[in-house]
Amino acid sequence: MTTYNSADELAQALRRAAAAHGEQERELGHEDADWPSWYADHMVREQRFAHLPGRIDPKNLTTAHDTNQPQQVNTDPEQDFMLRYSGE
Fold first, then answer.
1. How would you class 84 by CB atoms within 10 Å of its CB: exposed for 0-12, middle for 13-18, buried for 19 or more?
2. Which of 51, 79, 81, 83 has its CA 20 to 30 A from that of 62?
3. Helix count and strand count (H, E) for the chain
4. DSSP tag of 52
5. What whole-number distance in Å separates Cα of residue 16 and Cα of residue 23?
6. Which DSSP symbol is given to 49?
7. Cβ distance 2 to 40 under 8 Å?
8. Does the pLDDT value for residue 20 go beyond 60?
9. With pLDDT > 70 as the criterion, what percentage of the chain qualifies?
10. What is the CB neighbour count within 10 angstroms for residue 83?
11. pLDDT band for position 1 (50/70/90)?
12. Which DSSP string do the residues of 31-48 spell out, in sequence order?
């Protein structure tokens, strides 16, 4: 369900939809005859997903893995087998 608390809040939502729709029409290269449906869908989705965070710029991402060098791994298969199964 989509609701607005005031006429001003609804007007602001319509202005945001108009701006977004203008970008959509520029990408399409022509006017959208079914703009009321586009506005309605945009406004419902905007309100439904308003709690989501803004776009994350990939440049601001960091890695969370350990940057230490990995420990030396035993490459002798017989010794590796003995180490793995010696406790059983």
1. exposed
2. 51
3. 3, 0
4. S
5. 11
6. T
7. no
8. yes
9. 77
10. 11
11. confident
12. --TTHHHHHHHHHHHHHH
Mean pLDDT of 49-65: 70
* Letter string b/e over residues 59-69, b meaning 16 or more CB atoms within 10 A of that residue's CB: eeeeeeeeeee
| Cβ(47)–Cβ(13) below 8 Å | yes
The tokens 């609701």 sit on which residue?
Answer: 3
What tokens does 53 get? Answer: 């965070």
The span from the CA of 31 to the CA of 55, in Å, is 28
Name 83's Cβ contacts closer than 8 Å, sequence gap at least 6. Answer: 74
SS3 content of the chain, % helix, strand, coil (to 5): 55, 0, 45
Amino acid at 60: N
Average pLDDT over residues 57-74: 68
